[in-house]
Design goal:
34% helix; 2 domains; five-stranded antiparallel β-sheet; alpha+beta; 5 helices; 14 strands; 285 residues
């Protein structure tokens, strides 16, 4: 893989001073709009922010990508694939670059400029060559473009107002010479545009005196208690059964004794009767 790098931009000291000046004026997006479950206008305003990639060859015919929405972390992840035929309608190896880049739309206009961080800006050609776009990574503010929204232009030549001679769009050194025929054969433009993560609401603090939820009995303890209860119920049933058995045995013994006494009484009475009858017979004689 070939990687092309260019030494571009300001010195470190100049860049640091510039960033300090910019950050004092720029707005953080989530100060105006943010994800919310209760404030629909803020929520809708946040998630309406998004971007599209765009491309024009030296024929200056406009092409754009699908919509790329902002995510929950405040980032827009751009991966815009530019087909070779867009750069060269003839398909004869005459592809050129006029202008390509990213436009971010639906930022609240009252907040411009916005704080941003851009990282991993690069163009990966069809043959695998990677051109790192350091001048894009150095952008720290999203400013309002005259054509609407915030726009990042990546072009090999300056755009100059013919009447005033003013440079309206500056060229980027990383793509110098790509306006020549055959210099551009398509590829993928990618970068991450970061507006900063929304701050999550703080969880409500616990007040003193608030009752903690009652602790539930552990499953093992509950199971042991149930087993103990079952054993007690079993012992109770066995005890009742033994008492009932003992009562039945007592009743049977009582009945046996009663029957025995009855038979003895009958025998004694019969013997006495026989004796009386015998005495009467003797007396008559």
């Amino acid at each position: 893989m070939k990687i092309r790098k260019f030494a571009v931009g300001m010195t470190a000291a100049a860049m640091a001073a510039s960033m300090m000046c910019m950050s004092a004026q720029a707005t953080k997006l989530t100060d105006l709009v943010y994800p919310s479950e209760t404030e629909s206008d803020k929520n809708d305003g946040y998630y309406s922010v998004g971007a599209m990639g765009f491309f024009m060859s030296q024929q200056w015919q406009w092409n754009q990508s699908d919509w790329i929405g902002i995510n929950d972390e405040g980032k827009i992840e751009v991966n815009y694939s530019i087909n070779e035929i867009l750069a060269d309608k003839t398909m004869e190896g005459k592809g050129t670059l006029g202008d390509m880049g990213v436009m971010v739309l639906n930022l609240p206009e009252e907040g411009y400029p916005y704080e941003i961080t851009i990282s991993d800006a690069k163009f990966t050609a069809k043959d695998g060559t990677v051109t790192e776009l350091e001048s894009v990574n150095e952008i720290t503010e999203a400013t309002l473009d005259p054509e609407g929204g915030f726009r990042i232009h990546i072009r090999p030549t300056d755009e100059v107002n013919e009447e005033t001679g003013e440079v309206t769009k500056e060229a980027r050194p990383e793509v110098a010479g790509w306006e020549e025929e055959g210099a551009f054969k398509g590829g993928t433009l990618s970068m991450t545009i970061d507006f900063g993560a929304p701050e999550l609401p703080e969880a409500p603090a616990e007040t003193e005196g608030s009752e903690a939820p009652a602790e539930t009995e552990a499953p093992a303890e509950t199971e042991a208690a149930e087993e103990e209860k079952a054993e007690e119920e079993s012992e109770t049933e066995e005890s009742k059964a033994e008492e009932s058995k003992a009562a039945d045995s007592k009743a049977e013994n009582k009945e046996e004794k009663s029957s025995t006494g009855l038979f003895v009484g009958i025998g004694v009475g019969a013997a006495a009767l026989i004796a009386v009858v015998a005495a009467l017979i003797i007396k008559k004689k």
